[in-house]
Design goal:
Blueprint (H helix, E strand, L loop, with lengths): L3 E4 L1 H7 L11 E6 L3 E7 L19 H19 L9 E12 L8 E12 L2 E10 L2 E13 L2 H4 L7
Antiparallel strand pairs: 1-2, 2-3, 3-5, 4-7, 5-6, 6-7
Length: 161
């Protein structure tokens, strides 16, 4: 399938259970089902981690760059599987390999997340992920994840809670 589309923040929030301060995707600019996604995270000085990481020289923690990549990968997987928002489960990390950080990400940067599906086998997804700022590689990794039912939904709670 080669449908290409974009998603605003309202659409993103239908596919991710994360909310402030942990929602790391502001917009999807391109999505090719079964193949790839390009998403945006606008990094602002108002991020809750900057006062402590690091005072006087704020840098986005690498683990949060990986989380942003994983959230983009989750949207790609949910959309590829054609899950409706009310059917959304949760994507759990299964592994991170080859994570490399090439440049710091600072307030005012726009993090462009480029995720490609490498394969999906027996419920385990493998992705190639890149994060860029101004066309320059900031971080890269291979991510593995699995889709599971949302325990909140199974308990009768809203999956968006």
């Amino acid at each position: 399938m080669s449908e290409s589309t974009s998603m605003n923040i309202e659409a993103v929030m239908q596919y991710l259970p994360h909310r402030y301060p942990f929602l790391m995707i502001d917009r999807v600019v391109e999505l090719e089902l079964g193949k790839s996604i390009t998403a945006i995270k606008n990094v602002t000085i108002n991020e809750p981690f900057f006062p402590g990481h690091f005072p006087g020289a704020p840098v986005m923690p690498g683990v949060l760059i990986l989380e942003a990549m994983a959230q983009a990968a989750a949207i790609l997987s949910f959309k590829t599987k054609a899950y409706a928002p009310e059917e959304i489960g949760i994507v759990y990390f299964a592994g991170i390999d080859g994570a490399r950080f090439k440049r710091p990400v600072k307030p005012g940067d726009q993090l462009v997340l480029k995720i490609e599906i490498v394969r999906e086998m027996r419920g385990i997804w493998k992705y190639r992920a890149r994060a860029e700022v101004d066309g320059e590689l900031a971080a890269e990794a291979e991510l593995m994840a699995t889709l599971r039912d949302n325990p909140a939904r199974d308990a009768g709670q809203s999956p968006q809670a």
